[in-house]
Amino acid sequence: MPDCYFCCTELRWSSDFAFDDCGIEGDGIVATFSCPECGATAEFTSKITDEDEDVNKYTDDETVD
Ligand SMILES: [Zn+2]
Rounded to the nearest 5 degrees, what angle is found at the Cα of 14, between the Cα atoms of 46 and 6? Predict the structure, then answer.
């Protein structure tokens, strides 16, 4: 678990949300944390990249050539 930016206490995980749930475009995860010591909250966002899409792009490029 990450440490609190303000007091360096280990943050407690609260919950995970999909980008959709937070009104963010694209696919990804928003993880929320809270500090048990000072009450600060933190959010970490991570985009999910679709590897299948990348494979399709490569095959498209080859057919164009
Ligand atoms: Zn704190």
Answer: 85
CA of 30 to the centre of ligand 1 (A): 20
Distance 39 CA to ligand 1 centre (A): 6
* Cα 15 to ligand 1 centre (Å): 17
The pLDDT tens digits of the residues spanning 14-53 come to: 999 999 888 888 999 999 999 999 999 999 999 987 665 5
C-alpha 33/C-alpha 28 separation (Å) is 17
What does the alpha-carbon distance between residue 53 and residue 27 come to, in Å, rounded to a whole number? 13
Three-class secondary structure assignment of 21-58 = HHCCCCCEEEEEEECCCCCCEEEEEEECCCHHHHHHHH
